[in-house]
């Protein structure tokens, strides 16, 4: 059976090409996966927009309503980095719905990939850092509320610390947060994850993979997870304009292979999200993001 891949056209909120957030990568990523035969034509699972009740499991109801009714205060929009209009609100709901669907499919089939998600800077009372809703936090909360699992592990390999996720689950012993990130990168005010692995600027493939392997073993020992959410951001890449690390394409692929393989070898389901990646070259960036789906397919 092919590994389930999730996509929705609304993942692309159609920003201006000069915007700092490369929104069009979501459309191109999906196109490349079909063009290259990674996903069959018509082969994507299409998620429904996240229900408001799901969103309120991880976010303050006031903030959820502010997004749904496009009434986000200017200060929060500034922290997010763009205006939350109707298109952005629907994109955020669909991306979150995609991560919930990926989690449900992973529980059923062992592994699933969302072609969006990883908005890990959004915290309980507001968004930040290009993140409106924290899709992984919402999906984890949905699984726990539905009684699907009792223990969740978040493995966040985006170059930026998963501060919003760490804060949302700071008092929740059922969710263990692991963040491996560039020590000197955004956010300046770091949260306290259950396990943080801050890396020096310029860290390359070998040192990164060594740190990752040790972190996966320790996080698993402490959390005993029944599902893993994997944020596979490609911003640790050497050519990423908002990263500070130095991974190569092959290093990114081996990172993804290491994470997915570690948990599949233990028969633990993995729900993957694409996380961050920033480049003016949308074609190169989108192809870099497809490394995740290509590697995931090795485990199908």
Keywords summarizing the entry:
300 residues, alpha/beta, seven-stranded parallel β-sheet, 10 helices, 42% helix
Question: What is the gist of this entry?
Answer:
By secondary structure, the protein is α/β, with parallel strands linked by helices.
Unreliable sequence segments: none
* Spatial separation of the terminal alpha carbons: 6 Å
Shape: globular
**What percent of the residues sit in helical stretches (DSSP H or I)?**
40-55%
- Count of helical stretches: 10
Work out the number of β strands. 7
Profile the largest sheet. 7 strands, parallel
Question: What string gives the helices and strands in order?
Answer: EHHHHHEHEHEEHEHEH
Provide structural commentary:
The protein has ten helices and seven strands. The chain is an alpha/beta fold and 300 residues long.
């Amino acid at each position: 059976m092919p590994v389930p891949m999730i996509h929705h056209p609304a993942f692309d909120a159609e920003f201006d090409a000069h915007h700092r957030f490369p929104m069009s990568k979501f459309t191109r990523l999906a196109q490349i996966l079909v063009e290259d035969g990674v996903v069959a034509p018509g082969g994507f699972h299409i998620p429904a927009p996240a229900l408001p009740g799901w969103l309120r499991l991880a976010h303050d109801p006031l903030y959820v309503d502010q997004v749904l009714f496009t009434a986000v205060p200017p200060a929060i929009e500034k922290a997010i980095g763009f205006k939350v209009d109707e298109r952005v609100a629907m994109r955020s709901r669909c991306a979150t719905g995609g991560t919930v669907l990926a989690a449900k499919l992973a529980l059923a089939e062992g592994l699933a990939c969302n072609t969006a998600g990883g908005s890990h800077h959004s915290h309980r009372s507001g968004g930040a850092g290009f993140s409106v809703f924290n899709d992984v936090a919402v999906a984890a909360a949905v699984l726990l509320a539905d009684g699907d699992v009792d223990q969740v592990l978040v493995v966040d390999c985006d170059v930026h610390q998963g501060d919003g996720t760490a804060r949302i689950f700071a008092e929740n012993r059922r969710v263990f947060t692991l963040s491996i990130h560039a020590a000197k990168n955004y956010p300046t005010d770091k949260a306290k994850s259950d396990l943080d692995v801050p890396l020096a600027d310029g860290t390359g493939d070998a040192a990164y993979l060594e740190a990752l392997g040790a972190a996966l073993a320790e996080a698993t020992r402490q959390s005993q997870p029944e599902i893993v959410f994997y944020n596979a951001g490609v911003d640790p890449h050497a050519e990423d304009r908002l990263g500070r690390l130095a991974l190569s394409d092959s290093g990114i692929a081996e990172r993804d292979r290491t994470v997915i393989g570690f948990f599949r070898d233990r028969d633990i389901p993995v729900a993957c999200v694409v996380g961050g990646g920033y480049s003016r070259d949308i074609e190169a960036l989108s192809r870099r993001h497809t490394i995740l789906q290509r590697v995931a397919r090795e485990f199908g």
